[in-house]
Known about the structure:
The chain is mostly helical and 316 residues long. The chain contains 10 helices and 7 strands.
Amino acid sequence: MQCVIRTISGKLHKCNLNRILNNETMEQSCECNKFGDIFLTTSTNISKVIVNNTQQQELETDNFFLLEQFLVLVICTGSLTLLQFTIYIFYLIKDCRIEQKMITQQSNLSPSIHKNKTSLIYKGNSLIFKEKFKVIHQTVSLFYYSDQDIKLSYRILELLSQFNLLLSLSILECYNSINQILFICLFIIANPIVILILRIFYKIIEAIYRFRRIAAYISNFILIILLMMPNLVLLIFYILKIQIQQEQYQVAIIVLGNSFISQILIEPLTIFARIIIYRLIASSIKNMELNSVYHLMHFFVMHNSLEEIFEEFTRI
């Protein structure tokens, strides 16, 4: 015997059947948590129908919830990309105005007189790290260092594209319904390492950018594509009808963890490693020795502030 309720929408739900035995009679009552028509049935097949109907309703509810999560993620990533692109355009226009002013000022200035450089002795990697940390750090240097060869708008675009690559990796990792803390911690640590490896590719793009004109446009275009990567990943998910199994907060946790590991831990270690490598190859580069390995290392660790530092020292 089963107790069933049919709601106003026509869906069937199973209710609790309470039985109370009073001497020779038995009282039966249905306890339901919904409004509708209540039926008492003795069919042996009704339980199967109810179970199938309930499973179908739960599946529809889950699909609607996942679709809602997907739409929220699309809106958030789209808004973020639009904001980042607006910031890039703002600084690009600002760089163009500054460049025009510099051209005007240089045409009005007389040739500069070079002062004699004082001879200095190298004081150690740790001191250089403390003094030049804020001008080499990828994020902090945006506020403290001005590079004549690499415009501020390009450096901002480069940083934002790397952040969006972290976001893209987080979205891809949340495709599966893996909500274990161990996997989330693994993704938080692994993603910044992947971006660190990809910075070799970024260094090549930056070298292309230094040629200016068409090469600079190509470099900016590649970075803009990388900036839009989260939106492209979600577009592919939509076309292939792939649903993300995780909620937005898990994506946010991974991305924020990635940013912390990348900028607070990996970036300082990378800066110190660059200074050590620069210290080892500085003499060879300064004397223009034909060492292909040193020149390759110099290409990847090169930074204008380090170039300026090591040119000042007569003894390294």
